[in-house]
Amino acid sequence: MKPKENKKEFANIFIDACLILDKSLSFEETTNLSEECMDKITDIFRERKGGEFRLSTISVVFESENFKEILKENIHFRDIDKDINVLSLKQSEEDFNIQTIIFNELSKDNEVDILRLGLEDISNNYNIEINIFEVTDAETYIDDIDSKNDELIKILSNNEDVKKYFKSNSVNKLKLIYNMPWHKEPQLIYDFEL
Fold it and tell me: Cys-Cys link to 56, which of 11, 42, 70, 140 (CB 3.0-4.6 A)?
């Protein structure tokens, strides 16, 4: 999502690759391998019409066999909205409805971004991942997060359009993930069986 907006971000693909080296390479060889890996990933997206513009970040980490980090490199792509404002993402009316409910409910008092929202390909889960960057009162917010989550689930569960959408897509679990980098537990996960 675009920060502080109820709009889907065009460049919303983030790739994290972790590669374990089974032999010792020099720093130069590892750097060359990292650049080659990033080029291949980018080429895959360039083969699709407009695909490279969907990329936001590519991160490649190389580790040794004992999981010691050797090299980490990131590529951040330009802000697509500054370059192309005629492209739009297909989003179902039902997904936009769910997105709007969440955005309106959670952004009342705090700076909230929806990082991820939608059906999971490999299961019948519907995932909602939310970044909560700033809150007015951190202690009170953490004390209230269970009730805020319960209220959000209640709102979604009682919405007839949402219920129909979940039923037609055989959704059996709602998963809410809250990212809070300012808290000692930076991620809270709630699973709700439907």
Answer: 11
CB neighbours of 81 closer than 8 A, spacing ≥ 6? 2, 10
Q: Where are the beta strands (DSSP E) in 21-172?
A: 55-63, 69-76, 111-119, 125-134
pLDDT tens for residues 5-35? Answer: 667 766 777 778 887 877 777 778 888 888 8
Rounded Cα gap, residues 114 and 7, in angstroms: 9
pTM for this prediction: 0.59
How far apart are alpha carbons 75 and 35 in whole angstroms?
10
d(CA 172, CA 15): 27
Whole-angstrom distance, CA of residue 83 vs CA of residue 29: 35
